[in-house]
Amino acid sequence: MSLSAAARRSLAQRCSHLRRESPLLWCHRSSAPQEHDLGSRRPPQPWSSRLRSRAFSSPSAASEQDKPKISVTFVDKNGSEKSIQVPVGMSMLEAAHENEIELEGACEGSLACSTCHVIFMDEELYQKLPEPSDEENDMLDLAFGLTETSRLGCQIIAKPELDGMRLALPPATRNFAVDGHVPKPH
Amino acid sequence: MKVLAMARRASRLGLRFPGRSRDLCTGSDDFGMPLHVCVVGSGPAGFYVAKKLLKRFDFARVDILERLPAPFGLVRSGVAPDHPETKVVINQFSRTAEDERCRFFGNVCLGTDVSLEELRKNYHVVVLAYGAESDHRLGIPGEDLEGVFSARQFVWWYNGHPDGKDLPINLNDVETAVVLGQGNVALDVARILLRSPSELSSTDIAEHAVKALRTSRIRKVYVVGRRGPVQAACTAKELREILGLKGVEIVINEADLQTTDCDLEELQSSRIHKRVFDLFCKSATFTKCAGRDKQLQFVFFRAPVSLLAAEDGIHVRGVHLQKTRLEGSHPRKLVGTGEFEELDCGLVLKSIGYKSLPVPDLPFDHKKGVVPNYFGRVRSSDATNETERGLYVAGWLKRGPTGIIGTNEVCAQEVVTSIEEDVNRAVVSNLKEVPGSVGLESILSEKNKRYITFEGWERLNETEMEKGAVKGKPREKIVGIDEALAIGLAKEKE
Fold first, then answer.
1. What's the pTM value of the predicted model, to 2 decimals?
2. What residues of chain B, 394 to 453, have a C-beta less than 8 Å from chain A?
3. Which ipTM value was assigned to this complex?
């Protein structure tokens, strides 16, 4: 059972109402804290809710096909590669799910988890992304196996400049071999 | 001779004997029978293990036991009502439960309704993922005064956990609360005390809680930590949220933000701590806005010594604290300075860590509050490397009560990898057939114990959502066990 499109939009609005009151949330680029009238600031709509309303409404097949596409390669923890075509404007999380690539998305793109963590294998392309928001960084703090070129898949939006990007799926397990020893069962 | 006998038996069952083939036996042809798994606990740990087992073995049959009528563990009863996006993971867990190879057994309690021994006889693999339902104690005088609760009890109360609804909490006669601990749970409970009830009334908070919060006189909350802002255990998202809470003034003593060289070293090596510390610094220098009638004060370097009783000797009236400092290096030690102070309050919430509960026949480390294990395989005792055949742990019972929902995904992968290795070595079952669900059903039926299926939960879920819709809430949680069972078990009567 999943939330309907309307329920998801309502969820996003409720989150927005409860969470977006603080100047601390939005003045992360300024060095000095500023006096804010809490009532007047209205932050931009979270990208995650735009993802949900697009993903769970019924986009016409034709409009998706018309969009220019970029090539993206996912590399799993064993080194297996899968190259896919992603329409400009789609998130990597959505693209992974549409192509049956094993990228977890526990919170379905609402910036409430780090399970869609991916690693850019090309530093140059990584630099072409807009900086992560404070909210994305908050989630990246908790990502397993975080690297210098890590991002959340739900926040990477396909654009022409990212054509050819290679994204590694982080290893989900620790390296646990201890001299290859496995204890005997009782 | 023994090897030959095993090979003959394997061949009778249509199995390849390990050693004869290097193939991993992940296909049903290889194993020749269903792999019967019982997962105890339906929170993130249990569900991630179930999900990964079903993916890894197409011949797995996974039964998930849950002692409450409703599934999902702390996602339902721990995540705060004003964090609905964190609960979206329930969709994924529901898809796992709806797999035809997966069965949910709600209202079934390990220990009371079925023993661990019985489960191990009926399943190839038993994974205990029942979390941590108890608390660490401070071990100080006054801990049992009225008005002193663990944060877990308070969270269960506002989240409508059936075991939490009768919490004897009084918010009407209290103006100040002290929260001991500075992790995310501490911030959750402080935030629920301070957030305006009108904002909470459109969440899935339990009705009895929002009713009590509407008449609450609490205007000041202290969040007290033994160490400093550099060591605070909370994470940036939660801290950012509470620092920006509408109508609440934040008080931080700037002197507490002084850092030593050791502090700077710690900050450099931890991204999480650095970003949290930066938020504390920003908040301390932020110009105070007018019109805030509530206060949240972060108190650092104070350790609780005793909880003080009011004149009636029954209710708590304050906390006696000792100033602390960090000494030495690598690792630093926390020491008392011999200076003391008091904070007046009428409510104390201890947020110093959850603790798991042991069950009979289960090896348990009482000091750490976890089951000793080797990458999820239960060890026969702390002192040995011998492991219990077919018995595993996952989640907080395995790792201790830390981490977020997503941490369980990594943890589950580790456990499932151990299970897979053991299945491949035929260690788990020694190639024997077991009854699985059929055996469990027979045990429950002998005791006249009725269980809630996943369809039963979906009925309960629909009812909660319908009741909530009337009040503009995503759901109105059904808190009474009897009412929940009546709805969840309904169809079974036919």
1. 0.86
2. 404-407, 409-410, 413-414, 417, 421-422, 427
3. 0.85
